[in-house]
Structure formats: C-alpha cells, structure tokens
Amino acid sequence: MRHTTVEQHGKHRVILALLIAGALALAGCSSPPKTAATTPPVSAPPTSEPATTPAPTPSTAAVYKPATDKGPAENVPVPALPEKAKEFSKEGFIAFAEYWYTTLSYVYETGDSDPMMAITDPDCKTCAFINDPIGQLYEGGGWIVGGQMTVIQSTSQFVEAIDGSFEATLMVQQAKVVAFKADGSRGSEHLQQAARANTVIASYVDEKWRARTAEPIGEG
Amino acid sequence: MDSIPFGNGCILLPLIVVQALSVVPLADIEIPKWNDASVVVGGNDESGNQGTSDDQPSTGPDDKYIYQSRVACTEGDQAIFPTCATVMPECLAGGEDGKPGTAIYWYASLKGAASPVWVFHSGPVCVFGEKPRDLLAEIAGQIASEFQRLPIAAAEFGSQPGPHTLRGKETNVWANASTQTFNLTMIGQKVTITATPVAYTWSYGDGTIWGPTPIHGAPLNKDRIGEQTQTSHVYTETGRLTIGLITHFNGTYTVNGGPELPIPGQGNIPSASQPLTVWRAETNLYADDCIVNPNGIGC
Known about the structure:
The complex is a heterodimer.
Chain A: H1 2-23, H2 49-52, H3 90-110, H4 114-117, H5 125-139, E1 143-146, E2 149-156, E3 166-174, E4 177-180, E5 186-190, E6 196-205, E7 208-216
Antiparallel strand pairs in A: 1-4, 2-3, 3-6, 4-5, 6-7
Chain B: H1 12-27, E1 65-71, H2 75-80, H3 82-93, E2 102-110, E3 119-127, H4 135-149, E4 156-160, E5 164-166, E6 170-176, E7 180-186, E8 189-203, E9 209-213, E10 233-234, E11 239-255, E12 261-270, E13 274-279
Parallel strand pairs in B: 5-13
Antiparallel strand pairs in B: 1-2, 2-3, 4-6, 6-10, 7-8, 8-9, 8-11, 11-12, 11-13
C-alpha cells in the first residue's frame, strides 16, 4: 500500500516534469523516466521511525506517545476491528462505522492507510483525498500533530438500500491538525471545528462489513 | 532530497529546472482536514434553508440533525467570543418590527439516535419575529416566573444581643443563607435551577432600612458583643420592635444538563421577622446618704 502511494507521488512529479518540459518546448524530454520516484533518503529525526513502520514495533513494551512539534506519534496502536463490528446487526454496523473513524485517526497519526483500506472499497474518493497527501507527507519525513477523530454520537436505521448498502450517521469531530515538514517547519494547519454529521455507507459481504464510502455531510 | 534519474536523454538545463521544482510539491503538501473531504463528493443532500426564517440552520427533509437553540452571548460569553460583539448590536437594534431579537447558538444532535447528544452546531445568530421552534426558548420565557414560585428557603438571621438590646449600644445582625438547587420538569425537559444568595436588605425595625447589600454579617464571639460591625446598628429609642431581612437570590438554570444560563430577575425571599426589645440603660451613682438626702436615688 505504501509503495502505491509512492508511485502516485511519482506520477504527479512526472506530470509536472512534462508540463515544464512542454513549456520549454523541449520535445526531447518527453519520454518519462521509468523510475521517477526513488525512495527518498529520509532525513527525518530518528523518533519518526517507529510510526512510519508500525509493523515491526514490539507491541508489548511500546508506549504510545502522541505527536509533538518535534516528531510524529510513536507506537500508535494499530487499529484492530472489534468483534462486535463483524456482526450483521444494527449494533454491529454502528460499531463498524465507529471503527472506520479509528482507522482515519490512524492515517493522520501515522500516514498508514492500510487498516482503513482493508475495510473500504479502493475507489473511496474521500479516502484518497485524505490518504494520498498524508501518505506523501509521512513518506517525505513529515508528520501531523492532531487530526484524531472523535465519534460523539452514532446511529443507523439499519435499512437496506436498493443497492444492498446500509447507512450509518455519526457526529464526528476532528482535533486540530498541524502538519510538519521533514525539516520541522510547519505546513498546513486547521483549527478544530464544530462536530459534524458524517455518513458511512457499507455493505455486508463475505461475513464482513465493507465501507463503500465515508463522508462528512455538506455544509461547506 | 529527491533526484530525477538521468538517462532519459534530456539536456541538462531543463533537468535542473525540473529538479528544482520537483521539491516544491513535496515540501508544500496541502494536508486536508476531514471536513474538506465533502468537497470531493460534491456536497450533499442538504438543499439549504427551505424554511421561512433563519429559525433553524436547515429544515430540509433530509437533514441529519435535530436542533436546539440556546441563549447566546450571555455576559460570560461576550467576554470570550468576539462574534458576540458583531451579533449583539444588530440583535438589540431589533428586526423589522423594531423588537429586539434573541441571540442564540444552535446545538445539533443526530436525528433518530437513541438519546440526543447535543453538540455545538453554529451561532451566535439573532432570531427575530417567529418563535424558534424550540423548547429551550419556551423554557427561557417561563423560567423567570418559575423561579419566583420556587420554595426557596429564607435565610436564618439573628441579632446580638437579642432578643433584648440596649439603646445607644451597637447591635449586631447577621444572616446565613445557602445556595439551593431545585430539579423540576418543564415542557418535558429536566430543568435544574440554582438559587444563590447575592444580597440582603436589612430592616432594623426603627425605620432604618439598609440594603440591598452583599454584606451578610456574621455572629460575633460572646466576649465581643457590643462592638461595631459591618452590619451593626445603634438604636436611639427604646421600644418593642421587629427586625426583618429580605434575601435576594440570583438564579441560573440548566436544561438537560446543558450550559448554565442566567434567570432574569431576582428572587426576594423575606425571613420571618424577629422581635427585638430595646431597653434604656441608666447609670446612677448610689453614693448618697439617704439620711442626708432622702430623695437620693435608691433611697
């Protein structure tokens, strides 16, 4: 998954390169380089390593440490789908929808979207909208302070739509987001906003829930 | 940091340009907040206000929320939120009919949830004319009269010395009132009213009224009775008097555990009046010899 993100990043760069090349009218440059994105030599502080490579982190002795302006969060617990969230029931579906936002928090804290995409359709647009830039940021040695999602309330009528999907509605609030670049300077910053209704649309296939999409609802 | 590999046949000059620019998107990745994600799916089913006024943030049939209004820009709020400064003047100036509006915050909860969880939605906004379709506003309208009907316990009070005192001497009075809470149900909502004593009006019984004052005094130690205190009074006439006290309570209320809101007006609770007899004290010298002066005092 992480490799995919890098490739996408590479594509963007290639497009940019092509644009520049075109602008300079240098036709000889039009053949795109085959491996545009070599893995950058990450010059991030050493503290960033546990967060960017969560798998080998020893889970027993690891103590979670939230991100600071000095470095990313450490030993962020990898989201694990609760038993309840596997059930085909209203409660199970609501648990699944709530769990989805745990995986979104995890993306903000680690740049790793694997747990989210393990339970979500690959063409989820809102997912890509978040996962791509955050994945790039972490790949490049940057990190995010905050961004965790809090589910305040959740509900579902648990009525199957014509296409076989179910919809849950959640009141969700995101913590303030501050992005840091690899050199420690500040990037994007978003203040905490009021909680907002979100919808999770999912279907139950092969004994498990799979999100088609999760979106904040309207209001600009 | 990154390098574009060579070997694609480019001449050097554009390669340098590309290299320089290729760092830019990496360094300045715009990190979105989750709420921005709604942009990529093209908005939602909330078609906006279909109502006739700004009573509710959205009245569309597909609205996911139910709403509550809460009184906005109370004194405490005005010190915290700069938006109050922009909303309040307009609100107090009045709407089309010239009547001042009410500043409110909207709170929202998900429609259809087992039990509502109210979270701040928007505001402050000023509501004119039409009554907000909201229980809180109704409660706000009734809370003052409800407050007046509460069985608030009067303050205990007393005088020292008492119930007998002396003309020309300092008589100390003191009150002891307590903060009281009341739970009641209004329009099906749980309302908790807190009454806090804030001021006292003393009636010394000889026509002297003092107050309202925040000073409630305190009982003196026995060995210091007769000293001047903040609440003490000197009687110039003897007589059988009654002294009285009115305690003024401020009220606040919360609805369903929401924020604490002020109740307009005060609860003025009289304590049962108490008798006080003011005696005259005479000082005489019992030194005369009654044989020499048969009219001497004590003879």
